[in-house]
Amino acid sequence: MVAMRGVQKHFGSLHVLQDIELEVARGEVVVVIGPSGSGKSTLCRTINRLETIDAGSIEIDGRPLPEEGKALADLRADVGMVFQSFNLFAHKTIRENVTLGPIRVRKASKADADRRADELLERVGIQAQADKYPAQLSGGQQQRVAIARALAMDPKVMLFDEPTSALDPEMIKEVLDVMVDLAKGGMTMIVVTHEMGFARTAADRVLFMADGRIVEQNTPDQFFTNPESDRAKDFLGKILKH
């Protein structure tokens, strides 16, 4: 579903992605972890070209990532993205936030888009909030709206860039529960997160990044119980003791 080959990315003199080789199968859940500044978010953002790359290639479902124009917009419609900040439209209701993309991009009728929005809001547990505005919802509820909004486009793959990092601790579980449900439902997902519990529970594969490289990748069980690289051992030693 996603193929990255020889991907390089610089920010000035900083080499933030180095020789990235990654294939993600249809229905696979890949969790990307690592220290701050390791390139995790940049990797995620290159997959729908929110960040350009300097060299290499990226394919989504067998198609090269377009550089610009309508072809890129079409591809982005197939790649759902959930950010740290919810990025909801404050002046639109929750239902309107979810229906905007399908009506504008997919050319869905308002009736069909409304029906689908209500189904998705029910799925993420906030259908009762459909007529409210984002400011009236908690952070956890707003992030669940953001997930429903991405799902409304019927994406082929979902990207999550630290979706719980801006949330209070008690709100994190409600968002992770929705993501676990998505994973169990067969959605192809690439998740950048610090939530090790989610990585253990929902991931098919854990990717560990450091200094712009994929240092190690393995099943969650193997990675957490028997990391191979010294860099991963050091990282896990620091975070799992707290």
From TrEMBL:
Location in or out of the cell: Cell membrane
Record membrane topology: Peripheral membrane protein
Pfam families in alphabetical order: ABC_tran
InterPro entries in the record: AAA+_ATPase, ABC_ATPase_HisP-typ, ABC_transporter-like_ATP-bd, ABC_transporter-like_CS, MetN_ABC_transporter-like, P-loop_NTPase
Keyword Endoplasmic reticulum appears in the UniProt entry: no
EC number: 7.4.2.1
Principal localisation: membrane
Segments forming domain ABC transporter: 2-236
Presence of keyword Protease: no
GO CC annotations, alphabetized: plasma membrane
Catalytic activity, reaction form: a polar amino acid(out) + ATP + H2O = a polar amino acid(in) + ADP + phosphate + H(+)
Signal peptide: none
Keyword tags: Amino-acid transport, ATP-binding, Cell membrane, Membrane, Nucleotide-binding, Transport
A GO molecular function held by the record: ATP hydrolysis activity
Principal EC category: translocase
PANTHER family: AMINO ACID IMPORT ATP-BINDING PROTEIN, GLUTAMATE_ASPARTATE IMPORT ATP-BINDING PROTEIN GLTL
Family: Belongs to the ABC transporter superfamily.
Protein name: ABC-type polar-amino-acid transporter
